[in-house]
Amino acid sequence: MQKLFNKILVPVRNPEKRGAVIESACAIANKYTCSIHLFHTSTSGSFTDVSIAGGLRGVVPHFTSKRWRAKNGLAQICDYLLGATDDGVTVSYSMRTGDWEENLVELIKKERYDLVLMGQRPRFSWTGDLRVNASQITRRTNVPVITVPAGNQLSGLCSIVIPVTDFLPVRKLVYGIYIATNFDASIKLLGIGSAKNAVTVQHYLQKAFKLVQDHCPVKVSMEKARHSLIPAALRDFIKRQPVDLLIVNPGYQIETTTHFSYWPIHFLSRQNGPPVLTINHV
């Protein structure tokens, strides 16, 4: 199979803290011998608020100090990653000011990253004015995005869950097989549908199962969930069974807003939910 992960982009909200997303980047880079690029955006809004509160004289010193702390933090994370990753893995970082999403989209397209790895903020952390939506990034760049909850990380993957609805999820299967093969994980295909489309869902569930079973050296199983709402079905399934990675399409399957916002459907615990890989249909 063609190598899918070569260049990983890791947005870092707080460069002064090393979170679960950094450990996850390390695990993936070691598995696939990828390069890792850390990226931080400083929004002008935060500087404006401080300048109003402290007077215009405080603008430049505060900006310089904050930027220096961010740069120093990124450099320290780079040093850590260089010591924790295998030979052949390169690590770098960069910084910009402006809007997080616009900067990320521009950087992904310009540098042709093939995976974005984002941390997900803790439940009660301060959100500020920064919001990054995994579905939006995936839609605009066609690049997969993995969100990693604060209390979890992508290491020792055992169980990968792929929801199957009223179409054959070819791209989700490709990435699921690719990850499962390298991490020696099993794949669970979860057919989700209501009474209206039960026959269609069953058809594509069996088709996906046979595709994986007949052509890939991966342990695969399938299960059905009768529900009209896909996020609710996933939530109920995750409560019952351990899931190490969930692979979904953007939009209606699950809306994950990472780092600085919330999950609109509150379908997973921000601390203990599994990492989520969001990927376009085609």
User: In CATH's first tier, which class of the largest domain applies?
Assistant: Alpha Beta
Query: What number is the mean pLDDT?
Result: 83
Label the CATH architecture of the largest domain: 3-Layer(aba) Sandwich
The chain-level structural class is: alpha/beta
Q: What's the CATH superfamily of the largest domain, by name?
A: HUPs
User: Portion of residues in helices?
Assistant: 40-55%
What's the helix-strand series?
EHEHHEHEEHEEHEHEHEEE
Termini distance?
A: 18 Å
What does it look like?
The protein folds into two domains: 7-148, HUPs (Rossmann fold, 3-Layer(aba) Sandwich), CATH 3.40.50.620; 159-278, 3-Layer(aba) Sandwich (Rossmann fold), CATH 3.40.50.620. Helices cover 40% and strands 22% of the residues. The protein contains eight helices and twelve strands. It has helices spanning 20-32, 44-54, 59-84, 100-111, 134-141, 170-183, 198-215, 230-240, and strands spanning 7-11, 35-42, 91-97, 115-119, 132-133, 145-148, 159-164, 186-193, 220-226, 245-248, 257-258, 276-278. Helix 1 (20-32) links the parallel strand 1 and strand 2. Helix 4 runs parallel beside helix 5 (134-141). The protein starts with 6 loop residues before the first strand and ends with a strand. The model is unreliable at 45-60, 122-130 and 255-271 (pLDDT under 50).
